[in-house]
Design brief:
The complex is a heterodimer of chains A (195) and B (301). Chain A is of the alpha/beta class. Chain A has 6 helices and 12 strands. By secondary structure, chain B is α/β, with parallel strands linked by helices. Chain B is 43% helix and 12% strand. In chain B, strands 8-7-6-5-4-3-2-9 form an 8-stranded parallel β-sheet. In chain B, helix 10 runs parallel beside helix 12. At the A-B interface, helix 1, helix 3, strand 7 and strand 10 of A face strand 1, helix 1 and helix 12 of B.
Chain lengths: 195, 301
């Protein structure tokens, strides 16, 4: 099977790290800044960054509506940290003008662990990746506070604190797989695109 | 969640990965100098990825003279209360106690900054001793690598703060990134000479030869006053932009802030740059570098 062509939303954030991770998996990548870039991709990674900034730039670059449409039509998506916030159906502690796509039925609280001094690394058991724990890096990270009935929780740091979820072909993590050399979550996303 | 193995083994804070990781998340964004909560709100509303809390913007420090110090904690906390984006603050070069106070205030990044009056004329802060990450300025690659060896997790060009003149930032970026390009083509024996000439640790020089990049993100600061300036430094290889006096010394700060955010995100798109550069009013008044009494970029060693 031909590998899909995957876009990385390139308005702000750790775009280069996701592009690098996908290229290591042999996937063709496209940096998505405008609607015409979006038309060329089979799936999209929404990277870590500042979600309130990316939300504004989505509107300014006239990308919000086309991307909402693609997600509504079932385009696969993988959101990490800020990307998870943008894919969520509800944002808690967000700015009033902050937009999200509602591509996965979860409520996400921004900066749930505190400020940078509380940012941390840990090893997580992730459902679907049984070989070894995933080394996860959380940076001013959000947490999932509510999941809809269609949502699978893949990992949690504490009872009631899911940090990786999936609904159909939409995958989200509070942490940053792009900061670690472990490519298994990117692989999980790509595998999920097919089915 | 009954089928889920509790994932937590242990949490480690303050690691290199965590500290450098926040800098990665700021890439492609604009970090704006602010002196009070009202300015911080304007910055966040305009799409800033972070704000830098300080008592006076660099152009006022330049004008007023005197000793420039860390900001009042009350002001920093006031800013932390009104915005949800990261809040950075400046400590004087070598001023360990100011940095400790900023860490106690839980600022998200500490800038050990030449814009403030240096507290130590020989030593920078041992930044490995802190859990909060540091950004430091550099004018050349040797200075950048010395700061990284002291624990800096982000490097920014020094530029010449408070002038609205981008020429020094361009010089610093070209110097740092040009030397990195040369090192990638050097042979093993030449790397020893590079380390000696740069007065930098050999392992860092060898790492650059292998990877072709600094081990930490490289941002631009010092003299950026317009959307076109932001695009210029991004095209030269900066990964994000600090804007000091350029926003709140312009005639319409909110408009200028939005335009610089848009220009930084779309730095390769001249059509968007043309659009956002229109009707911004007056940029901050600029200064010719040759007329300066104090060059802030010469502070730090």
């Amino acid at each position: 099977m031909a590998l899909p062509r995957i876009g990385v939303l390139a308005l702000q954030g750790a775009v280069d790290l996701h592009v690098h991770a996908l290229e290591r998996l042999g996937v063709e990548t496209v940096e998505v800044r405008r609607a015409e870039h979006l038309a060329r991709v089979d799936g999209l990674v929404l990277p870590g960054g500042e979600s309130s900034t990316i939300s504004k730039l989505l509107v300014i670059n006239e990308l919000f509506e086309p991307l909402a449409q693609r997600l509504n039509d079932g385009m696969p998506a993988f959101g990490t940290c800020a990307g998870m916030i943008m894919l969520a159906s509800e944002i808690l502690d967000g700015r009033d003008d902050q937009l999200s796509f509602g591509a996965i039925d979860i409520s996400v609280r921004r900066n749930a662990f505190g400020r940078q001094i509380d940012s941390f690394e840990t090893d997580l058991s992730v459902i679907g990746l049984p070989e070894a724990p995933v080394h996860a890096v959380f940076i001013r990270a959000p947490v999932v506070e509510r999941v809809g009935p269609e949502v699978e929780i893949l990992a949690a740091v504490e009872e009631g604190q899911p940090v990786a979820c999936r609904q159909g072909n939409v995958l989200v993590t509070s942490f940053h797989p792009e900061l670690s050399p472990d490519l298994r979550l990117h692989e999980l996303f790509i595998k999920g695109m097919a089915g | 969640m009954a089928d889920l193995t509790p994932g937590i083994i242990s949490r480690t804070t303050g690691t290199d990965l965590v500290k450098r990781g926040l800098a990665d998340m700021l890439k492609g964004g604009v970090i704006m100098d602010v002196v009070d909560p009202a300015q911080a709100k304007i910055a966040e509303d305009a799409g800033a990825v972070a704000v830098m809390a300080l008592e006076r913007v660099p152009s006022d420090i330049r004008r007023d003279g005197g000793v420039a110090r860390m900001s009042d904690p009350e002001m920093i906390q006031g800013i932390q209360e009104v915005v949800s984006i990261p809040v950075m603050a400046k400590a004087r070069i070598g001023h360990i106690a100011e940095a400790q106070i900023l860490q106690a205030l839980q600022v998200d990044y500490i800038d050990e900054s030449e814009v403030l009056t240096p507290a130590d004329e020989a030593h920078h802060i041992d930044k490995w001793a802190f859990d909060v990450p540091f950004v430091c300025g550099a004018t050349n690659l040797g200075e950048a690598l010395r700061r990284i060896s002291e624990g800096a997790c982000m490097i920014r060009s020094k530029g010449e703060a408070g002038t609205g003149n981008v020429v020094e930032a361009v010089r610093h970026l070209r110097s740092i990134l040009g030397d990195i390009r040369k090192i990638t083509t050097a042979d093993q024996a030449e790397l020893f000479d590079w380390a000696k000439r740069l007065q930098a640790p050999l392992p860092l020089v060898q790492e650059i030869a292998e990877t072709g990049t600094l081990p930490v993100p490289m941002f631009c600061a010092g003299g950026i006053a317009t959307p076109a300036d932001a695009s210029l430094v991004m095209q030269l290889g900066a990964q994000a932009v600090f804007v000091g006096s350029g926003i709140f010394k312009s005639s319409d700060p909110s408009l200028m802030a939005k335009a610089i955010v848009e220009a930084t995100a779309n730095y390769l798109d001249p059509d968007i740059l043309a659009k956002v550069s229109r009707g911004l009013g007056d940029a901050m008044p600029g200064l010719e570098i040759g007329t300066l009494e104090t060059k802030l970029s010469e502070r730090g060693w």
